[in-house]
Design a protein that fits this description.
This protein is an all-alpha fold. It has 5 helices and no strands.
């Protein structure tokens, strides 16, 4: 396949997981009540705000570039939605993690990011993403 065809596939990944996440949140809201769906959405929105704060901080201070790396916004936004599936959809966890691994391989193939860019971004943002989403899931149970 050509570079452009692979790029097209890479460009579809995030919208695809966003649509899946929205569908799952709507189903969650139907099954467990609107409050559950709104808390799940809140966790996703707070996680999204966080990864963009990190991006703006990196752009301002140059944290990743100081190490000759690049903050992977591609990875970070995908992790927001993967985090949702990790917290709320145990049946989809494995599939979603594998999809992220495939997406990471595609980003490296396309030379969007290096493995180190992807790993450092993941290590820095994933704990906060999971904390945000887990805390919102716990708030519903109260």
């Amino acid at each position: 396949m050509s570079f452009e065809q692979w790029a097209f596939i890479a460009d579809l990944y995030t919208p695809m997981i966003v649509v899946m996440c929205v569908i799952c949140m709507v189903l969650l809201g139907r099954e467990q009540g609107l409050r559950s769906g709104l808390f799940a959405l809140s966790g996703v929105l707070l996680s999204t705000a966080f990864i963009y704060v990190v991006m703006f901080l990196d752009n301002s201070v140059g944290i990743w570039s100081a190490f000759n790396l690049d903050y992977s916004t591609h990875t970070a936004i995908a992790l927001v939605f993967i985090g949702y599936f990790l917290v709320y959809s145990p049946k989809l966890r494995g599939v979603m993690v594998l999809s992220l691994v495939g997406y990471a391989a595609l980003m490296m193939h396309q030379k969007y990011h290096t493995l180190t860019d992807i790993i450092t971004t993941t290590v820095c943002v994933m704990p906060v993403i999971l904390l945000c989403q887990y805390k919102f899931s716990e708030m519903v149970k109260r």
